[in-house]
């Protein structure tokens, strides 16, 4: 296959400290060569090798494609009325999930598949090149397996979230539902999933239930990741660290002990500011986590209940404006941080041998993603070395 030179890059974010200074490993006045879907070379433009073809970045910034490590894309219907209620002061509660479960169970495969495709198109247009997708709005053996099979058509990063909430038909017997999730539902889901997740929070699952779900998932070959500490301080972060989860997501209400535990672990803290925006909740304190040495990721949490956005740029802007991150830290968290949360080293970075997944901005610096909030700055997206 022929080599393609991407030239006229004002600022190239590599996330590779060997390539340039700072957290982002930035090269100014750069070029990048793509071959066979991978990065073959990058560096100052005046040292670029000759190539068969060339593309101009038109003086824009180029960065690794965003890695969205937390989404719930397989659903039907919407929850606009919940959102409107919250904007008038009603608090978020997980019981709203039941209405999305009902709509999702009733929807034919074609509707769910088309919905995922539409949302993935939005994510892609906004610069996301890798996406994790959870089940969790089926909550029966057949509906959870179906959600994962649909998600698998689009991504290898699929997550079994049968333990999202206890569905209404099991309200009188929670233990029976945990048995279902850790038994027949897990058996049906595992062939279609890489990860297992559990919502460990008020109104969802307690520590013992969450531990049982994670243990069963690990025994079935899935790696745990958790929703934790979204609604109140609780056991989620502690449990995630204890079991060696890849990531604990939300992290809005943390104790000093939680922050210490994360700092001394390999578990990533994935922050989801779209959820705080759309539930009018307090934002997580990213500064506190970063200063303690915790690895932080940013993700959209795209779902109809708490965060119906596909815009990673919005998440970056909120992280900078509301959570104490610098623009560089937020961009790093949305790229390299997401890759860490998915335990991937071939994405979230641009260096020779990495996947040529990248976004080209109609702006000269990635700081513009926060500086110009709400403006669609992603001019082009390449996945595996090809414009998409
Ligand atoms: N918090 C748990 N799950 C989703 C919300 C699901 C919903 O309300 O539909 C989240 O990550 O925010
Ligand atoms: Zn979630």
TrEMBL record:
<feature type="binding site">
    <location>
        <position position="301"/>
    </location>
    <ligand>
        <name>Zn(2+)</name>
    </ligand>
</feature>
<keyword id="KW-0378">Hydrolase</keyword>
<comment type="similarity">
    <text>Belongs to the metallo-dependent hydrolases superfamily. HutI family.</text>
</comment>
<feature type="binding site">
    <location>
        <position position="72"/>
    </location>
    <ligand>
        <name>Fe(3+)</name>
    </ligand>
</feature>
<keyword id="KW-0963">Cytoplasm</keyword>
<comment type="function">
    <text>Catalyzes the hydrolytic cleavage of the carbon-nitrogen bond in imidazolone-5-propanoate to yield N-formimidoyl-L-glutamate. It is the third step in the universal histidine degradation pathway.</text>
</comment>
<feature type="binding site">
    <location>
        <position position="303"/>
    </location>
    <ligand>
        <name>N-formimidoyl-L-glutamate</name>
    </ligand>
</feature>
<comment type="pathway">
    <text>Amino-acid degradation; L-histidine degradation into L-glutamate; N-formimidoyl-L-glutamate from L-histidine: step 3/3.</text>
</comment>
<feature type="binding site">
    <location>
        <position position="230"/>
    </location>
    <ligand>
        <name>4-imidazolone-5-propanoate</name>
    </ligand>
</feature>
<keyword id="KW-0369">Histidine metabolism</keyword>
<keyword id="KW-0408">Iron</keyword>
<feature type="binding site">
    <location>
        <position position="70"/>
    </location>
    <ligand>
        <name>Fe(3+)</name>
    </ligand>
</feature>
<dbReference type="InterPro" id="IPR006680">
    <property type="entry name" value="Amidohydro-rel"/>
</dbReference>
<feature type="binding site">
    <location>
        <position position="79"/>
    </location>
    <ligand>
        <name>4-imidazolone-5-propanoate</name>
    </ligand>
</feature>
<dbReference type="InterPro" id="IPR005920">
    <property type="entry name" value="HutI"/>
</dbReference>
<feature type="binding site">
    <location>
        <position position="137"/>
    </location>
    <ligand>
        <name>N-formimidoyl-L-glutamate</name>
    </ligand>
</feature>
<protein>
    <recommendedName>
        <fullName>Imidazolonepropionase</fullName>
        <ecNumber>3.5.2.7</ecNumber>
    </recommendedName>
</protein>
<feature type="binding site">
    <location>
        <position position="301"/>
    </location>
    <ligand>
        <name>Fe(3+)</name>
    </ligand>
</feature>
<feature type="binding site">
    <location>
        <position position="306"/>
    </location>
    <ligand>
        <name>4-imidazolone-5-propanoate</name>
    </ligand>
</feature>
<feature type="binding site">
    <location>
        <position position="164"/>
    </location>
    <ligand>
        <name>4-imidazolone-5-propanoate</name>
    </ligand>
</feature>
<feature type="binding site">
    <location>
        <position position="137"/>
    </location>
    <ligand>
        <name>4-imidazolone-5-propanoate</name>
    </ligand>
</feature>
<dbReference type="InterPro" id="IPR011059">
    <property type="entry name" value="Metal-dep_hydrolase_composite"/>
</dbReference>
<feature type="domain" description="Amidohydrolase-related">
    <location>
        <begin position="62"/>
        <end position="365"/>
    </location>
</feature>
<feature type="binding site">
    <location>
        <position position="70"/>
    </location>
    <ligand>
        <name>Zn(2+)</name>
    </ligand>
</feature>
<dbReference type="InterPro" id="IPR032466">
    <property type="entry name" value="Metal_Hydrolase"/>
</dbReference>
<dbReference type="Pfam" id="PF01979">
    <property type="entry name" value="Amidohydro_1"/>
</dbReference>
<feature type="binding site">
    <location>
        <position position="72"/>
    </location>
    <ligand>
        <name>Zn(2+)</name>
    </ligand>
</feature>
<feature type="binding site">
    <location>
        <position position="227"/>
    </location>
    <ligand>
        <name>Zn(2+)</name>
    </ligand>
</feature>
<feature type="binding site">
    <location>
        <position position="227"/>
    </location>
    <ligand>
        <name>Fe(3+)</name>
    </ligand>
</feature>
<feature type="binding site">
    <location>
        <position position="305"/>
    </location>
    <ligand>
        <name>N-formimidoyl-L-glutamate</name>
    </ligand>
</feature>
<keyword id="KW-0862">Zinc</keyword>
<keyword id="KW-0479">Metal-binding</keyword>
């Amino acid at each position: 296959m022929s080599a393609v030179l991407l030239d006229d890059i004002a600022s190239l974010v590599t996330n590779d400290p060997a390539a340039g200074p700072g957290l982002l490993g930035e090269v100014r006045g750069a070029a990048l060569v793509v071959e066979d879907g991978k990065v073959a070379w990058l560096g100052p433009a005046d040292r670029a090798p000759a190539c068969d073809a060339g593309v101009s970045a038109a003086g824009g910034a180029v960065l690794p494609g965003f890695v969205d490590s937390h989404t719930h894309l397989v659903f039907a219907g919407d929850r606009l009325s919940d959102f409107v209620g919250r904007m008038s002061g009603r608090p978020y509660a997980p019981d709203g999930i039941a209405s999305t479960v009902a709509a999702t169970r009733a929807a034919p495969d074609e509707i769910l598949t088309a919905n995922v495709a539409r949302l993935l198109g939005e994510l892609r247009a906004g610069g996301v090149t890798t996406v994790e997708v959870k089940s969790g709005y089926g909550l029966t053996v057949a509906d959870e397996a179906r959600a994962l099979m649909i998600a698998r058509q689009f991504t290898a990063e699929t997550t079994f979230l049968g333990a999202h909430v206890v569905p209404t038909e099991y309200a009188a017997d929670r233990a029976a539902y945990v048995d279902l999730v850790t038994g027949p539902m897990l058996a049906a889901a595992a062939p279609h999933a890489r990860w297992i997740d559990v919502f460990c929070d008020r109104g969802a699952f307690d520590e013992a239930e969450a531990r049982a779900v994670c243990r069963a998932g690990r025994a079935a070959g899935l790696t745990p990741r958790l929703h934790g500490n979204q609604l109140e301080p609780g056991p989620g972060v502690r449990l995630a660290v204890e079991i060696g989860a890849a990531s604990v997501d939300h992290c809005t209400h943390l104790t000093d002990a939680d922050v210490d535990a994360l700092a001394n672990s390999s578990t990533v803290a994935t922050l989801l500011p779209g959820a705080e925006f759309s539930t009018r909740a307090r934002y997580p304190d990213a500064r506190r986590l970063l200063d303690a040495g915790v690895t932080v990721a940013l993700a959209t949490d795209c779902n109809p209940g708490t965060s119906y956005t596909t815009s990673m740029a919005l998440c970056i802007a909120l992280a900078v404006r509301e959570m104490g991150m610098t623009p560089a830290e937020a961009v790093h968290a949305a790229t390299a941080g997401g890759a860490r949360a998915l335990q991937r080293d071939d994405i979230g970075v641009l260096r020779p041998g990495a996947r040529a997944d990248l976004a080209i901005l109609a702006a000269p610096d990635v700081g513009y993603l926060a500086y110009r909030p709400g403006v669609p700055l992603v001019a082009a997206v390449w996945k595996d070395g090809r414009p998409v």
